[in-house]
Amino acid sequence: MTINLPGKVKNILQKLQDNGYEGYAVGGAVRDSLLKKNPKDWDITTNALPDDIIKIFNNYQIVLTGIKHGTVGVVIRKELFEITTYRTDNEYLDNRHPSSVTFSKSLKDDLSRRDFTINALFCDINGNVGDYFNGINDLKNKKIVCVGDASSRFNEDALRILRAIRFASTLEFSIDEETKKAIFKNKSLLLNISSERVQSELNGILTSNCFGKIVNEYDFLFSLFIPNLLEQKDIMINNKSLWMNTLEMLFKLDEGLKEKEVREKIVLKLLGIFLNTGIVLENKNCLDKESLNASAIIAMKSMEKLKYSKEQTREVCWLISNLGWKFDCSKISAKKLLHLSPMSEYVYMMLEFLMTVSSDKDFYNVLIKTKENVDFIINDKEAYNIKMLDINGHDLMNDLNIDGEIIGEALNYLLDKVIDEKVSNDKKCLEDYLKENYLKEYK
């Protein structure tokens, strides 16, 4: 079995060979090439020691951030390639990193420390694929299998638990039974992993097209999303109706968001994860204002602990808090919703979520009409915030001699009337309306 190697990779392997060393492309790039996917980056493994690698590639920019573990980065025409000396890992002290590494002369020794058989594939300069651990068959059978003893692999690096689930979800593979047993046996080790790394892997699982199926099968993932309230997970899952409702939402989001961008998938699937948590916290039977606010608080605390960005956290929390909006088919209602939102994108995401998970045909039609209204308002540049008014504070001071202290109040008054279509968004109309109404009512 062969794959096509990029010219730069061949050049690296040739340089190693010309200097008397072995060199192979290894890992994810080989796997992805066999799957007819475009590899993101190429890793090289060799029996050359780090000092030898530096000498061989002394005409290139060298990056030494991984030198402690035998990795030398070589930049070739602005592209980084990592070249790592064959090694074995010594004792893991933190369920994540080896305390030290020992360089080896054996390619098989190096590959035997890797996580999964499909990631332990290698190929030579001619693209011939080598396989010591049955990885090619596992790739054909769509199986995630640990190299060697699964529990040992997970005890060495607990993040491999999430990596196994991520590969299964993104590749739509199944996890081998022994590997699966080891995942559940060692899941508590994930508490030793940094929030940033957990979030990164969770996002990979989250944005797959089978997230609901994965969460149903590996329900402890739910606890990772709500690290502040781990007990909520058991209450949620034991409440069969509530848990099935959450899973049904996730299944629909998997199907409905397939073509969406990663950023939108993350926000909307997190919304699906957190939406019902407030029902448990507030001991409610349905989503109401109090339970939605409680869900938003859980989402905020959990996302902060998982080191999500402030922007993503704000989006998810706003969407949860305002999901109880009373939709109707009027343009006025759509403008009020746009006024309520920090950005129009929030409204579009809210509508996308509700249209994806809704099973009520009448409500779906109202959402469609709302989206049409929102599109019209934005395309026609109708005013729904103060900055869009055809009048500003300077106009009020200079033309109407309105005191600075009430300018904000006067502008909000005008905006309300424009949104309610009581007055046209035209400077003269607004000034006349203000003189005839606001000044009489409020002075």
Give a verbal description of the structure.
By secondary structure, the chain is of the alpha+beta class. Among the domains are: 1-145, 2-Layer Sandwich (Beta Polymerase, domain 2); 331-379, no CATH class; 386-442. Helix content is 56%, strand content 9%. The strands form three sheets. It has a seven-stranded mixed β-sheet with strand order 3-4-5-2-1-8-9. Strands 6-7 form a two-stranded antiparallel sheet. β4 and β5 form a beta hairpin. α13 (240-256) packs antiparallel against α14 and α14 packs across α17. The model has no long low-confidence stretch (mean pLDDT 91).
How much of the sequence lies in strands comes to 5-15%
CATH superfamily of the domain at 1-145: Beta Polymerase, domain 2
Class derived from helix and strand content: alpha+beta
Extract low-pLDDT stretches: none
Output the CATH topology of the domain at 1-145: Beta Polymerase, domain 2
The pLDDT mean sits at 91
In the CATH classification, which architecture of the domain at 1-145 applies?
2-Layer Sandwich
Distance between the termini: 85 Å
Secondary structure topology:
Layout: H1 7-18, E1 23-26, H2 28-34, E2 43-46, H3 50-56, E3 61-63, E4 71-76, E5 79-85, E6 87-89, E7 101-103, H4 107-112, E8 122-123, E9 129-130, H5 135-140, E10 143-144, H6 150-156, H7 159-171, E11 174-175, H8 177-186, H9 195-206, H10 211-217, H11 220-225, H12 230-238, H13 240-256, H14 262-274, H15 277-281, H16 289-305, H17 310-321, H18 331-340, H19 344-357, H20 361-379, H21 393-400, H22 407-419, H23 427-442
Parallel strand pairs: 2-5, 10-11
Antiparallel strand pairs: 1-2, 1-8, 3-4, 4-5, 6-7, 8-9
Helix pairs in contact: 6-8, 7-9, 10-13, 13-14, 14-17, 16-17, 18-20, 19-20
